[in-house]
UniProtKB/TrEMBL annotation:
Residues 1-79 form the GST N-terminal domain. This is glutathione transferase. Homodimer. Keywords: Transferase. GO terms for biological process: glutathione metabolic process. One of its GO terms (molecular function) is glutathione transferase activity. The lineage of its organism: Eukaryota, Metazoa, Ecdysozoa, Arthropoda, Hexapoda. Belongs to the GST superfamily. Theta family. Its EC number is 2.5.1.18. InterPro entries: Glutathione-S-Trfase_C-like, Glutathione-S-Trfase_C_sf, Glutathione_S-Trfase, Glutathione_S-Trfase_N, GST_C, Thioredoxin-like_sf.
């Protein structure tokens, strides 16, 4: 199974970490999706030319949430990462949609404003991010993990969004539940320390190019 990715991308991080949790070995294709020639290469099998793009036996999937769900449904030893119980799964789905619609977008907009535009985020950006973090804080105060009493793919995807903020040393003092939750999640992920080391190194290299 091939995975076109760049570890600096939070959606790619989610798919990489789901793979680690499942014990999957990808045929990794590290690419820079900002380069025109790479976009042209990706466009041959992904019209949105985005990463991550996953290919297995001619079956092509992009969008990290779709890839993660496919992997856990096909390769999970049980249903813990994406529970079959309709009520529990509905909460997992809600948290995934929350990440896609608010948490990831508000964090990305905030971080890109600082790193790419070299200016302070607007008041609107700050309030959007605070709203997202406040909601996440409430989720992890209700239970040990964001959607259940154990790790699910919602935790892994949301972890990647929060990790993006750690890269700019965003102060989470107002949200004490989030760092505690991060520690619980990362403790469940095999080889996370090594993964985080590579992520930090590649992120620093990327920032230098901006």
């Amino acid at each position: 199974m091939e995975l076109y990715y760049n570890i600096v991308s939070p959606p790619c991080q989610s798919v990489l970490l789901v793979g680690k949790k499942l014990g999957i070995t990808y045929d990794l294709k590290e690419v820079n999706p900002h380069l025109p020639e790479v976009r042209e290469q990706l466009r041959k099998f992904n019209p949105q030319h985005t990463v991550p793009t996953f290919i297995e036996d001619g079956h092509i999937i992009w969008e990290s949430y779709a890839i993660a769900i496919y992997l856990v449904e096909k390769y999970g030893k049980d249903d813990s990462l994406y529970p079959r119980d309709p009520k529990v799964r509905s909460v997992v789905n809600q948290r995934l949609f929350f990440d896609n619609g608010l948490m990831f977008k508000s964090a990305l907009e905030y971080v890109e404003c600082i790193l790419k535009k070299k200016r302070e985020p607007t008041e609107e950006m700050q309030q959007k991010l605070k709203k997202a973090l406040g909601l996440l804080e409430s989720f992890v105060k209700e239970r040990s993990f964001v959607a259940a009493d154990h790790l699910t793919i919602a935790d892994i995807c949301l972890l990647s969004s929060v990790t993006m903020l750690a890269g700019i040393k965003y102060d989470l003092a107002a949200y004490p539940g989030i760092p505690a939750w991060v520690s619980r999640v990362t403790a469940e992920l095999p080889g996370y320390a090594e993964f985080h080391k590579e992520l930090h190194e590649k992120s620093m290299e990327y920032i230098k190019t901006l």
